[in-house]
Amino acid sequence: MLEIAFQVPWLYGTIGLFVLVAGLLFVGMKFIGRWISDQQLARVHPPNARKLSNEDFEALCCRTGLSRSEISRLYMSFMKITDGNSHEEAEKIIQEVPYFQGPLQDRMLSALKLPEQIDFVILASALSVFSERAALDDKMRFLFRLYSSDVTGTVSKQDLTNLMDDVLPEFPDDDERNRLIDRAVQGTFEESPSSIQFQYVPILEPPMNDLN
EF-hand domain: from which residue to which, for each copy (predicted)? Predict the structure, then answer.
């Protein structure tokens, strides 16, 4: 029987059946995952809040580069914080949404350029900078605003010193920790003595004459 299954006509049929079953399993798991996500969202969804439709999810995924599951988790957090309201203070969102937790949490509000009051679309759009599909220039501009004390996009020695002081853990020896920070800052500014500024350098196509 095994020999018959591996003859050429049977082999094609076996491969086709395997591909069909694998495809059905993939589609089934996708719908099951979406159903579980929707059920989790329904449990925390306040009755007075607007529910996201499939079209909403697709539009947000396209706009932000975030996955459906990421948007669903973010929306659940937003609903819990706002109790179903469409708008909330950006500062409160920054303090309570798990995505922003960390030593640089206090800098996120200005680095993301959030207004005082935000809705879910504004929040999701701001978080698009963390998506893999976000443009490198957008990521770099965000990082320079995050590291700069005055949010100008220019990072000074003092900015970098303060940044490392915020993110580095405590050392048994404070002097050793300070020396490590000083060496890192001096190494970064070895060729730029005062500050580093983000500059956009477009990639231009070579002239047609150079291709000949």
Answer: 135-170
